[in-house]
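Lecture 7 notes: from sequence to structure.

We start with a single chain of 295 residues. Read the sequence below before looking at the structure.
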Amino acid sequence: MDINLARTFLEIVSCHSFAQAADRLHVTQTAISARVKTLEELLGRTLFVRNRAGASLTSAGEQFVRHAMTMVQVWERARQQMAVPPGRRALVTVGCEISLWDPLMLDWLLGMRESAPDLALRTEVGVAEDLLERVANGTLDIVIAYAPRQRPGLRIELLIEEKLVLVTTTPGSQAPRAADYVYVDWGSEFAAQHSLAFPELSSVGVSSSLGPLGLGYLLAVGGAGYFRQNVVRSHIKEGRLHRVPRAPEFLYPAYAVYAADADMTVLNPALAGLRQAAKGAVGKQQAARPSRTAS
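Now the structure, written as C-alpha cells:
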C-alpha cells in the first residue's frame, strides 16, 4: 500500500477535515478524497463520515488509526536509517518547541558531538502540537515541549524546571507600566496566572508569541517583560537587564517526550545528552544568582 494513503488518513484524523488536510499536505481536496476512496477500497471498509462539521471516524476508521500509525512509523524509521551517513550507526531526530530551543538545543548538539559522535543528528523547531503529533506517529524521535499532554504510547520526562522572571531595562524599577511593557505569550497557564498578578497589564502596546523576538525588542527600545531565566541571565550579568524585586515568578518547565516502544539503544545517548544540557543550564542559573549577605 502507498504510504501516502496512511499519512493522508492520519492527517484527516488530526484536523477532522478533508479541506484542512489538503492545505497541510499541499494537495487539492480532490486528491485527498481520491486517496481516501482508494484506501477504503483496499480495506473494504468505510473510514470517514463527512458532514458540515468536517469528517468523523467510523468504527472501522477508529480501528485503523493504530495500524496507520504503525505503518508510518516503520516506514519513517526505515527511511531515516537508510539515510544515515557513512560512519554513523543511526540517526536521531529531535524537535523542540520554539520558545525552548535556546540555549538547550545548541548545548545538546555540542555535547553530543563529544559524547556520541557515532550518531547522526537532525533538529527541528516548531509548534508543540505539531511536534507532539509527529513523535506520536514516529516521524520524530524526541520532542522538547512545555506542558505536553499525556498520550497513550508516549513517555514524558522532566528535563528542567525553567522559570519566567520579570526583567526591566531600568534599574530600581518596582512595577511594570503598560506603556513600556512587552507581553510574551508563554501559553494558556502563564496567561491565566499573569492576568491575576497584573490585571493592569491586560492591554499593552507590544505583544509577541515568540520569546526571542520580544526580548530583542525589549533590549533595543527598553521596558519590562517576562522571559526565561536561563536566557536573560547573561544580560543581567552584563547590566543590560535587571530583575524586578519581589515580582512573582512563573514555572516554565521543559519535558522530553518520546515513544514508549522506541529503540532505546539509540535514544538513551540522546536523552543522556539532553539531561546533561539541562543540568548545565541549571548550574548556569545558580552561578548567575547574586550571593546573599547578612544585613
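Residues 70 and 208 are 38 Å apart (CA to CA). Keep this in mind for problem set 3.
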